Amino acid sequence: MSNPESRNHSNRGGMTRPIAPTKAETALLPPFAGLSLDEIIVPTTQAECDHAASEIFDSGRTGFDTEAKPTFRVGQKSDGPHLVQFALTDKAYLFQLHRSECEKVVADIIASTEVLKVGFGLKNDHGQIRSRLGITLDHVLDLDQVFRKLGYRGQIGVRGAMGALLKLGFKKSKSITTSNWAAPELRPAQLLYAANDAFAALKIMEVLEAEGHLEK
Question: Is the Cα torsion angle 15, 154, 65, 6 positive or negative in sign?
Answer without folding.
Answer: negative
